[in-house]
Amino acid sequence: MPRGYFITFEGLDGAGKTTQLRRLAAWLTAGGHHVVTLRQPGSTALGDRLRAVLLDSRSESALGPISPLAEMALMFADRAQAIAEVIAPAIAAGSIVLCDRFTDSSEAYQGAGRQLGSQRILSLHAAVCNNLQPDLTLLLLPPLDASLARARRRNQRHARAHNPTAAEAPATDENRFERESDDFYARIHAAYLEIAAREPHRVLILAGEDSIDAVELRIRAVVADRLGNL
Description:
By secondary structure, the chain is an alpha/beta fold.
C-alpha cells in the first residue's frame, strides 16, 4: 500500500487555519481521498486532557504557574500520543492526514514566544517524535494585528457562549495564550518566517489578507500539484 501524505496547518490563532483545514478535508474527500483530521493539542483521549490544561486560562489559578519547560513537555507528550495513535497509522494506511498545528508551533510558541530556543525544540522533536516531518506545511500569516484581534474576539465569543451569566463559570476556556503580550506574538510571527525561510520546500507561506475563498483555491492548487507528483 502506498504511503499516505501528511499536511500541517500553522500560524497564529485567528489566521484561519481551522477553516482552511475543514475546507481542504471536504474537497479531498469529495475527490475520493481518505482523509484523517486532527488538532494539536488534542484529538486523542490523552491529548484532550492535556489541551484542557494547556489552553484553559484557569489552569494557572488552579495549578499554579506552568513553567515554559513544563508547557513544552506537555505539548510533546500530546504530540507523541497523536503520532502513535492517529498520525503514523493513518499515513501507513495511505490516508491524507491534515493536522492543525505540529512541531512548528512548538518552535514558534515555546521556542520563540517562551524564549526556550529552537534547538531545544528540534532536539526534543527528534527524540520524542522520531523526527517525523510533514510533507507539506501551509503557514497562514495574515498581518499580526489582524490575526490577534480575530483570535481574541473569537475566544471572547466562545467564553460568552459558555458563560451566559456572570455568575456561571464557562464550561470551556481556551484563552490562556491569548492573554500574552503583543511582544510574545511578535516573536512567534518572526519565528514562523524563519522556519519558512529555512525549509522553503516544505513550508508554503499564505500571507496577506486574501479572502477565505481565495486562500482556499490557492491551497487546493498547491495540494493538487503535490499529490499529483507522488
